[in-house]
Every structure is written in structure tokens, then in C-alpha cells.
Amino acid sequence: xxxxxxxxxxxxxxxxxxxxxxxxxxxxxxxxxxxxxxxxxxxxxxxxxxxxxxxxxxxxxxxxxxxxxxxxxxxxxxxxxxxxxxxxxxxxxxxxxxxxxxxxxxxxxxxxxxxxxxxxxxxxxxxxxxxxxxxxxxxxxxxxxxxxxxxxxxxxxxxxxxxxxxxxxxxxxxxxxxxxxxxxxxxxxxxxxxxxxxxxxxxxxxxxxxxxxxxxxxxxxxxxxxxxxxxxxxxxxxxxxxxxxxxxxxxxxxxxxxxxxxxxxxxxxxxxxxxxxxxxxxxxxxxxxxxxxxxxxxxxxxxxxx
Length: 306
Ligand code: PMP
Known about the structure:
The chain is an alpha+beta fold. It has helices spanning 27-31, 53-67, 77-91, 162-174, 218-229, 241-245, 276-289, and strands at 7-10, 13-16, 34-44, 47-51, 97-105, 119-127, 137-141, 179-181, 196-201, 204-207, 234-236, 249-254, 258-265, 268-269, 300-302.
């Protein structure tokens, strides 16, 4: 289990993490009615920074909008940044951490609705423990299908929808694999339980497009941006499962997965070692996160107390 840091931002102030609690009668607990994001807080030569903070805030706000939740009125981007700075300062981490920021519906027993209800923000930090090993990941196609946009939109990062991920991930673990591959209702490839998927065929980087019932991952976006910079041709399109079986390289991307190369899918060997394009993309991604890539400094927001 990852270590959770002691101090959390909850509603309007910092509290001990054990006191950052929601009522059992809240919609957040009753229906999983909360939206969230997890972002890397990285230690660079000049202190702690948040990776792609505006994009994480935008996705959080967009998730609330899709589900029909009202953001608490004081949650502007500026205040959100300020609360994150407070959370990092209170915990004084010594290494990279993940920040989980959630908008919860805290209203008590309002029934199955979303609009006009009380909401609050929580932020806590935890150890940046990766959910997949960097190399040698083994995947199993799940019998559970990805929830489609017309049921619970994958584009919105809504807590309740993660029951779908839990079903598929646990089934993969029970079968001796590291994670699952979700297919959509038509049998096209979506993603893993909590990471996007990429493949390489004949030097071309391919990933399921944004209309493939995937979460629009911020690491996915970063990988595509890096590919552009490195002049690696890429395409976002629908992907068949059998294309993964015969791909030259397959990898997963995500805040909590980093860039993890896939060795095996459904007992088909993909690669013994990470392929050259995976390595190139991963090297650059890791350097960006460390603040070592001068061109990409703008992706890191310094978390300095003003
Ligand atoms: N897909 C799903 C279902 C996820 O939960 C995540 C993790 N947030 C991702 C993809 C990767 O997204 P990101 O790169 O923004 O972490």
C-alpha cells in the first residue's frame, strides 16, 4: 500500500488526513458521485512542481460538467493552485508524490440527481508508487467491456465508474496477469484499467482515438506531443485487438503507470525488452518530469508559497 501523507486540504482548510471525512449519507458515498484527478508532484532542482496543472484542473472541471456537478464557487484555477501549494507545504515531502484532487458531492440523501447540490474539494498526497512495473507487463483481454460514452462516459473521471476498472483489473489479477485490456462494445481496443495504450507498427505510433471510450489521459497527450517533437509519426484511430498481438511494441501510459512496456497479451509474446520507440518516448517523458528538458519547462508549475 502506498503511504498517505498526514495533512489534507478538505473543503476550505488543511486538516489531519484522518479527519478529511464525508458522511455515509452523502452522494459521494452513496453513488460514487465525485470526480477526480491524480497528478504528479515532482521534485526538481528548483523545488516541487506540479506536472500539467492547468490540464489536470481543466479535466477535473470538465468531468464535473459532464456529470452535471457544480464546482464549489471558490474553486478557481488560482485558488486550486493555492490549495495544492498549501497541501504540499504542510506535508513537506522528501520525494516525488502523487496528488489526488477530488470534487465530492457532500449533500446528504438528495436522491439520484446531481445538479444544485453541495460539493467540496479534497486534496491529499500519497507516495508515487507505480501500478505497473516499467517492463515486462502481462495483459489479459477482459471479459468486462468498457463503459461506453452513452452509459458512464470514460472521458469523465468519475469515481463511481471505477467499479468497471476494478472488475476488469481484479479478474486479470485473479488470472495471474498484471492488468487488463478493455474492449468497447464493438470489440475495439480502449485502454487498461487505469492507463492508456499505445502500439507501434512499422515505425508508426498508434493509439485508440478519443472516441474509443478512453479517458483522455494527460500522459497520453504528453506522449503524442513528444512523438511530434521527435518526428515519430503517429495516428489516433480505432484499434483491433489482433493488431496488438502482432505489434512491434506495445506500452501503457498514465500518471500512475508512467510508460510501461508490455511483454505479453493473452499468452502472445510481444517483446522481451522495451522497443526503441518506447524507450525514446519514456526517456524524454522521464526527463520532462525531472525538469531536465529545457523545452518543456512550461509543463511544470512551480509550487511556491507567495
Ligand atoms: N485511463 C484511465 C481509465 C485512467 O484511470 C487513467 C489514470 N488517470 C488513465 C487512462 C491515464 O490518464 P493520465 O495519463 O491522465 O493519468
